[in-house]
């Protein structure tokens, strides 16, 4: 009799479990979608509830906004002849190898306080957890160029996938906003 009762309970449990919504108590994070009790995660996320991050295989910089730059060279003008404003170009440096991964075109005589964007970029970085930096130079055609400032960053921060983020040279005034996309 005991065995019969147990058997009945087991069959009932099976019957009821097959009827109930398997996703009822499943909380999929990061826009994951529950299917038959299992979270299906969007690109970049993993784990039972999609809370895990997948390291991207590539981060692509699509735009760089120049938010601010040093107005003077320690109190002196960046240039001493013809036009005193700096002639700005950027270099992306792979800090591990010191290789220049990308160089922008030059923006002549940019007045202090000017904000501008370099868009339409497709700068692909595959060592996404490495350290990179952006060097800003004042182009001086006849002599060595003046290094204006350097700001470091890591393409993938390890905690989220922001579409854009700000980097600075540590002064909290001089900075860029990088617009990026991720691939996995
Ligand atoms: Ca100069
Ligand atoms: Ca100039
Ligand atoms: Ca110059």
Question: Can you tell me about this structure?
Answer:
With 184 residues, this protein is mainly beta. The chain has two domains: 2-53, Laminin (Ribbon), CATH 2.10.25; 58-183, Immunoglobulin-like, CATH 2.60.40. It contains one helix and 13 strands. The protein has one helix at 2-19, and strands spanning 33-35, 38-40, 45-46, 52-53, 58-68, 88-94, 99-103, 116-118, 123-125, 132-138, 146-153, 164-168, 175-183. The strands form four sheets. Strands 5, 8, 9, 12 and 13 form a five-stranded antiparallel β-sheet that branches. A four-stranded antiparallel β-sheet has the order 7-6-10-11, with no helix packed on it. A two-stranded antiparallel ribbon has the order 1-2. The model has no long low-confidence stretch (mean pLDDT 91). Residues 78-79, 86-87, 138-140 line the site of one calcium ion.
